[in-house]
Predict the structure.
Amino acid sequence: MADGDTVRSVRRALDILFLLTDERPVLTLTDCARAVGLPKTTTLRLLQTLERTGVLWSDNGRYVPGPALLRWSRIASDAWLLPPGVQHILDTAARETGETVNVYVRKGLQRVCIAHAQGPHSLRHVVRVGDELPLWAGASAKIFLAEGPDQLLDDVAACSPHGPAHRATLDAWVADVRRDGWAVSHAEREDLISAISVRIDPAALGGVVTALSISGPSTRFTEAKLPELLATLRRAAARIAHHNAGQSTAQPLGITRLISGEGAT
Amino acid sequence: MADGDTVRSVRRALDILFLLTDERPVLTLTDCARAVGLPKTTTLRLLQTLERTGVLWSDNGRYVPGPALLRWSRIASDAWLLPPGVQHILDTAARETGETVNVYVRKGLQRVCIAHAQGPHSLRHVVRVGDELPLWAGASAKIFLAEGPDQLLDDVAACSPHGPAHRATLDAWVADVRRDGWAVSHAEREDLISAISVRIDPAALGGVVTALSISGPSTRFTEAKLPELLATLRRAAARIAHHNAGQSTAQPLGITRLISGEGAT
DNA sequence: ACCAGAGGGTCCGTTAGACGGACCGCAACA
DNA sequence: TGTTGCGGTCCGTCTAACGGACCCTCTGGT
């Protein structure tokens, strides 16, 4: 499936929707057009389409998130077993440590951020929900590698920028994680960034392997600080597991098998 | 702006996304194709487009909500000043009364459901987030009419199925709401359905006029039951207002002026 | 009062890209 | 071993998305 096998106008419409951020939840025609690099006419037509379907609301040329997004919000949170209370747990951990807290799941040879909270530090590591990161580096990547089959290690090594020789490193990481129950990374994927990660009990999340991580500038992730970060991390992971176990109304969702399923995208 | 001024393929893609519901968060190609009435080929192309952008995830022909929906979830909730805790308040009210609880805002000559919770009764009134209802009938409609300018009453009466003569009824309703602070409706818009509604303090919601309502089969909305329902409703409205006032980090959002702005769609 | 500039929105001829019928391969089932 | 139902691919047709030119309004400047 080449990229051209997708519908251009739909891609463009989604590009526009992706312009929405926490910081700028209001779009204007000209801003959109500039940002997505399309003529105003085309942009307007897409915005109007989004508006008429309730995805956006508009008035006087200002476009804001519409109720359709709220509808999907509910469905998506349920499907991902991320009830509202989980966000509060993440926020707490972010406040306690001052750093960025992220939740990842694996999708094929990538890990995807499905929830996050940011601490107060002005120098912070920013990963947004939906962002995809590789598996060949990073603290949470190691969690997934340790859970996956050997085949996964082969596949990841194969597509690693360090080449197939990276496989030995992966094996060492996996051994560490299996021994310690947690993982740390310093400037592996990106300079200056460190992270520490643990697994959330999959039993509480429909069997989906999920990694919880705290990340930030390496200068704040010293050996001396790690135990404290790890403690916060473990506490948060336990609270999430407990929180979900509480409302065990959680039916076996389609997503369960889906995410754990193999097969590189 | 005629309907033809919107992009067909985008409309179709959104139609597919609207197939997602709480009950059926997993889509398959053939199901979608049947539901939206399109050839499999076209449907597949749209699904693939949604998948490649992270809006859906797929594996073995099963499509589930993707992380992009989670990303928007966050943004939409913030923009609408509906932090996670609000849902819990609605759920509580739904459990206490056994009925359906809805939150509406006005958009032009319509009211739109922006949040809801369902009670345990198997016979229940179902309104989903994003659904648009008219202003010429219904308990929460009366709340909005009482808040709006006289012009609004004219416009609503003009498009009412009861004809312009309906204007007198609207005036009477408005007088009732302004006197009592709440509204009730019995089988006004739809047979067998009753509802009771109050206003949530706009000050807590960025100045947006918002109606909170409880609705269900008329047989359960007897005169004797109304005081109890009203008490629950008022308590929930106060809790929501208080909850939002608490986290008054709520910056003045774009949506604020937008929703309160006049102008029929 | 007048102009300049920017922004939202409309019109319409062109053509590229979305469309969908025919087809394939696979798995379950009889 | 034929049949059905499903997810997915191919490719010629033609429609519907595109975008340049244009208009209107509002705002700020002088």
Remarks:
- Chain A touches chain B through 69 residues (CB under 8 Å).
- Residues 248-265 of chain A have pLDDT under 50 and may be disordered.
